[in-house]
Specification:
It is a single chain. This protein has 261 residues and is of the alpha/beta class. The protein has two domains: 193 residues, 2-enoyl-CoA Hydratase, Chain A, domain 1; 47 residues, Orthogonal Bundle (Lyase 2-enoyl-coa Hydratase, Chain  A, domain 2). Helices cover 44% and strands 16% of the residues. The chain is built from twelve helices and ten strands. A six-stranded mixed β-sheet has the order 1-2-3-5-7-10, with helices on both faces. It has a four-stranded mixed β-sheet with strand order 4-6-8-9. The two termini are 20 Å apart.
Length: 261
């Protein structure tokens, strides 16, 4: 599927089944403004609708994944402007992406940059990655999921310290506290993120989407409700061609030939 012309991002297909979206505002350390987030979400939506793409990678530069929101764009706005605008609400577009997204993070992932990485499904960090929510220094708080996702990822006490005091997490700390999947050398982090996306893409895409959906529901539902939702998705997969193929391949000791149906 074709993409429009973008001004603040780059798109690529670096490996079979993998769509790459790269923030490209190097002069501002990829500060997130409405144009760049809008273009990134559009690119991800196009990849999401493309049957040839099975998983996406969202990245920035080695120096900065995204160093926060564009404060110059936000500074003059009122509460009414923020309620009426799309600054935060448009981020729901990212949450509606059905295919998995791997964030490949190097350098600064602060404020909105940290939030957008956490909204992705997995994070591969370079050794130089730094995560934080410094909004308190501006007299505001995280507004795109930081107080919620960070708390779920690292626990209340540490999330409080990060949000209330602008404590930054190094890549190794982020790994230790469960915020990221793995830490790689700077020269390898993007390659490893793409390889992780390829591994996802090698599975039944019907099952992958159902699994992503169920895992995300674990954050929103009680355990009892989540178990019911999981069971529903489990049963639904028994109506798919891929379920029959996967089980037959296992019995016949061969590699499955997924139809993604």
């Amino acid at each position: 599927m074709s993409h429009p012309t973008y001004e603040t991002i780059r798109v690529d297909v670096p490996a079979q089944g993998v769509g790459l979206v790269q923030f490209n505002r190097p002069q501002s350390l990829n500060a997130l403004n409405a144009q760049m987030t809008g273009e990134a979400f559009t690119a991800l939506e196009i990849f999401d609708a493309d049957p040839a793409i099975h998983c996406m990678v969202l990245t920035g530069s080695e120096r900065a994944f995204a160093a926060g929101a564009d404060i110059k764009e936000m500074a003059g706005k009122t509460a009414v402007d923020m309620f009426a605008g799309a600054d935060v609400t448009d981020w729901s577009r990212l949450m509606r992406i059905a295919k998995p997204i791997v964030a490949a993070v190097s350098g600064f992932a602060l404020g909105g940059g940290c939030e957008i990485a956490m909204t992705c499904d997995m994070i591969v960090a370079s050794e130089t990655a730094v995560f934080g929510q410094p909004e308190i220094n501006l007299g505001i708080i995280p507004g795109a999921g930081g107080t919620q996702r960070l708390t779920r990822a690292v626990g209340k006490a540490l999330a409080m310290e990060i949000i209330l005091t602008d404590r930054r997490l190094s890549a190794e700390e982020a790994l230790r506290f469960g915020l990221v999947n793995r830490v790689s050398p700077v020269e390898l982090y993007l390659k490893e993120a793409i390889e992780l996306a390829q591994k996802v893409g090698e599975r039944s895409q019907v099952a992958v989407r159902m699994a992503k959906d169920a895992v995300n529901k674990a954050y929103e539902l009680s355990l009892a409700e989540g178990l019911v939702f999981e069971k529903r998705n489990f049963y639904l997969l028994f109506s798919t061609e891929d379920r029959a193929e996967g089980m037959n391949a296992f019995v016949e000791k061969r590699k499955a030939n997924w139809k993604n149906k």
